Amino acid sequence: MRVVMLGPPGSGKGTHGALVAGALGVPHISSSDLLRQHLQGWTAAGHDAQNTMAAGDLVDDDVMVRLVLERLAEADAEPGFVLDGFPRNVAQAAALDDWLAERGCSLDAVVLLEVSRDVLLQRLGERNVSEGRADDDAPTIAHRLAVYETQTVPLIEYYARQGVLRRVDGDGSVRAVAERILAALRGSGRPPPSSEHP
Ligand code: ADP
Questions:
Q1: Distance from the alpha carbon of residue 33 to the mean position of ligand 1, in angstroms
Q2: Using one digit for the tens of pLDDT, what is the confidence trace for 29-56?
Q3: What lines the ligand 1 site, CB under 6 Å?
Q4: Domains of the chain
Q5: pLDDT tens, position by position, 78-96
Q6: What is the pTM of this model?
Q7: Which of 58, 126, 140, 148 to mutate to test the pocket of ligand 1 (most atoms within 8 A of CB)?
Q8: Contacts for 130-138 with beta carbons within 8 Å, 24 or more apart?
């Protein structure tokens, strides 16, 4: 099964991306993890990307698309994957669609984690305190949410038109949200293993 996790910063894409991937038995591919892994190996380009990430802006589409598609081409992602943090704008989504179409496949589901702005701000503020992330201070959080609104929100309509969008309420315990996501995926493409052997 080929799944994309969509949602604003702080919506739980990373946590739930990992859980869903585990349940489906496919790799969890996080765009920000890919970036962080490659930053060390790059020199000037890595420095640029690091500044861009710290500011909460989107890294260049060319860089991002190349990184993600290279990862998707690896053998373990052939049966499926859970992508988290990518695509983040329509250009990235179109590049992903084209790449999948060239291989005779397409996305089975795009999970949109819906969380109110108040809950997001609270979660991101807590993460700033507990993890000390450079991009989780108050002004950068506000900027990342604005980038999400302008660049990523258009993807909701984009995937709704394709009929693959699954809206999931992301407010609640990790366990409750995970259940909702797996229930939403049961109606999409091949059902997850847990529904075949309840
Ligand atoms: P995390 O997964 O650690 O919560 P994010 O997914 O918010 O982090 O990504 C952190 C930063 O990495 C973003 O603010 C952005 O600078 C960069 N980034 C991650 N994914 C993409 C992408 N698809 N396109 C452009 N930039 C990205």
A1: 9
A2: 999 999 988 887 766 666 788 889 989 9
A3: 9, 14, 30-32, 35, 52-53, 56-59, 64, 85-86, 88, 92, 135, 144
A4: 2-185 (3.40.50.300)
A5: 999 999 999 999 999 999 9
A6: 0.89
A7: 58
A8: 134/54, 135/53, 135/54, 135/55, 135/56
